[in-house]
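2 proteins. here.
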Amino acid sequence: MNNTPLSPRSVLPLPHAERRVVTARTLREHGVPAATADERCRPGGPWQMPLPGVYLLHPGPPTSEERLRAVLLYASRERFPVQTGAACAASAAADDGPEAMITGPAALALYGFSAAPPLLSLEHIDVLVPRTRRLRSIGCARVVRTRSLPRPREVTGLPVAPVERALADTVGRLGRPDDAVAVRLLLTEAVREGHCEPPAVVRELSRARLLNRPHVVDAVDAVLAESRAVAESLLYGLVRSHGLPEPCWNVDLRLPGGSHLGGVDAYWPEQAVAVELDTRAIHGAFGGDGAVWSRYVRKRETLERLGISVLHITPAKLRDHPEQQAAVVRTTLLTAPEREPAASVVVLPR
């Protein structure tokens, strides 16, 4: 076995995780020729080569972080020799954007999804690359191609696909009806824990052509119901934490003669102020935004003709700007005496 010591320009000055997982190019730059690296990777040697062009500089099993870094390095152009001339210019142009990012179950595990399998239990780690890359799945690296890479998020120092894209890539591999529970758990956790907005999830599933699978559609229905429940909880919290008067919750409004005016999520009868959660964005992900918006407009016009002030609040604004939304509601309630008296309406549980 070749025990030639490393060059004085060793890989040790690199950060801890990075110095344990390096590319052939990095080794060459530190004075370690390919022959020496390959010799050290022989059975019983001190190094390993888990993926082509990627070296693990210790003999034991890789950690989760080392596996992730190995997959990213495998998918990166950095593992190839330095190019010259026109080829170098083309590579530099391509390097303007991200080369690869973790996606699928590994990405969800990095985001902290309890419904995702632990990193160490994953046989494969999905890595998202442009579809033009000449790269094949091998070992623990499973290549996922896309027409255009999304902007990655940094999680534990690693480039990771946005949650909605990681969800779609995960759900795409859960194609059996037996996977329905797993799909539902992943999608509902994404919404409940605030990892991403439901419209983004639905759009990504639609883009991946997964909405023709019955168990995925059922899971999306659960996501929409979950989103509604989360938004209602945020509205309850906004009223109580900001000291607003307690409204009538989730009621139907009707004229005394029985004509139905529509349902609202909160209503203050004395001030004739109604709040309605604006979920158009969720329905818009299914392509129905126009019809939903028309219903919103008709209901709002009808109620406002009767002197009822209607506030539309989106779930995102409730979550991200609660103080601002509370101020809007409070101002509308306080200015009620300045408006014309509202028509009498009947308030019924919805």
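next one coming up
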Amino acid sequence: MHSPLADDLARLPELLQSARDFAARELAGVDERPVVHPGKAPDHEPLPADGTGAEGALARFAERWAPGFSGSAGPRYLGFVTGGATPASVTGDWLTSAYDQNVSGAAGSWAAALERETVGWLRELFRLGEVHSGAFVTGATVSNTVGLAVAREWLGERLGVDVSREGVSALGPVDVLSGSPHSSVSKALSVLGIGRDRLRQVPVLAGNREAVDVTQLDAALAELGGRPAIVVANAGTVNTVDFDDLRSIAALKERHDFWLHVDAAFGGFAALSPAHAHLVDGLDAADSVCVDLHKWLNVPYDAAVQFTRRRDLQTRVFHNSSPYLGLPTGDPDFLHLTPENSRRLRALPAWFSLLAYGSGGHREIVERNVALAHRLGEGVAALPGLRLSAPVRLNVVCFTLAENPTQERVAALAEAVAATGEAFLTPTVYDGTPALRAAFSNWRTSEADTDRVLATLASLPL
């Protein structure tokens, strides 16, 4: 055995303790470290011939790379919709690496059974029925892709075409309708061969809304003359966390033939709060659902879950025909349900966090984040140089400059906030106007953190 590798094996407990101590020091300071590091990264170094061993690698990482890592696990990283990682989920994630289970199938390990239990807990958390089966994937993009792949196969079933064998060209043009689709939907349509241009945006409700106008959707479906279609509904839009009327959209199936896919990447967590659960009323009527777990469940990257009513069609799309893998059964292995054959046990961090904190603990995180978003929104509205782009509906504050909000000026504001090291916000365009988004989804974030972000905004020339 190579000498550094043999030495590491002999000292493995010590090395794990060193990694634990380093991680603990880093996390202990995450509240106060700069939230982002926009400076230049180190120059490239050549690959070593013999290596330094794990202890040397840890020391070199701590010296060379760790100072430039963002504080995305911390409480004032409000860019994108990024959760942190709860203590229990970090525990589960470390054990995931230590056990290094292959969860392609159930043979030889209980790991796949643990994933099935975790999917069942999540199904209950989001108030879906037993008819919805699920599996873990990497993130919302893959979850949306899987859901739309099953939808594509459903279209083939309706038109007498086996898409998984004959190809998407056998379908002819596909109609995909949505009000305010996330960009990952277009990406998924490109990957699936349906085409980005087949996504038709239906008008949204008037009055500073991003939710689809169901009357307009009804009319758009009627124009198809009975041809089956795909409808992508939103349970939480990316800019303002607006929600489509899922129950009313599902009711359109009485008159039209369509697959209902719901992108509930982070808005689905509204189901945890009695005050906001009405926003996802009708989610259980969806044919497929996307939920991203490294957002509001606060488990480490990468983790998401997808649900569908038609596991038979999902298996037809994703089954892997190989003697050494076995054929799909009535309860197919996960390798027959997602794009991946090789699968990390992403369920374990979620299992740990769900068991450790229960539905009540995760409800508290959601409700606290929502309250903090409203707190920041009220503060932004009171600043003379800023204005809200839309009402704060859940956990995202979308705002812009009160005067002359050009792309250059708004980008400069985002850079100025990042340069302080106090917070990180991401840019967007809402209703044709450049804006910034502050997304609250981290389990650590407090009123004091929110007030620090507001104070940073107030201190900058606007």
